[in-house]
């Protein structure tokens, strides 16, 4: 590819999954407030949203990368309980990258297309994610060891 040339879509680009962009990279942390402070002071990221998601067992924050949300987000995830998925991840791996998330146009269509390709999804039906989004996850054993999150943003975003 020539330097500074636009990226051309591949002829065999798969459109039925409906990936739009990288939505965020999820990072497991022990202390959410300390992690927010670190990312803001060190990298100049802006915390644009925090919430407690009891269904997912996390307290979380979304930090914008770059001057606008167009740069995507880093999602910081701290466990609510020692039994939560994030707590188990931290016990096994320590703090660090836990997932890569992609925005999809329609999560139901994306899940159906991936299941047709033999991918295992963690949930039978999408669940509530950050800020009212709908989410599901591709099992890491089917995605090269990476936990892939699919995110359909809430209609008002």
TrEMBL record:
SUPFAM superfamilies according to UniProt: Glyoxalase/Bleomycin resistance protein/Dihydroxybiphenyl dioxygenase
GO molecular function ontology, one term from the record: metal ion binding
Keyword Metal-binding: yes
PROSITE patterns tied to this protein: GLYOXALASE_I_1 (PS00934), VOC (PS51819)
GO BP term (any one): L-methylmalonyl-CoA metabolic process
InterPro entries, per the entry: Glyas_Bleomycin-R_OHBP_Dase, Glyoxalase_1_CS, MeMalonyl-CoA_epimerase, MMCE/EMCE_epimerase, VOC_core
Residues covered by the VOC domain: 21-153
Keywords from the named record: Metal-binding
Family: Belongs to the methylmalonyl-CoA epimerase family.
Family annotation (PANTHER family): METHYLMALONYL-COA EPIMERASE, METHYLMALONYL-COA EPIMERASE, MITOCHONDRIAL
Protein's name in the database: Methylmalonyl-CoA epimerase
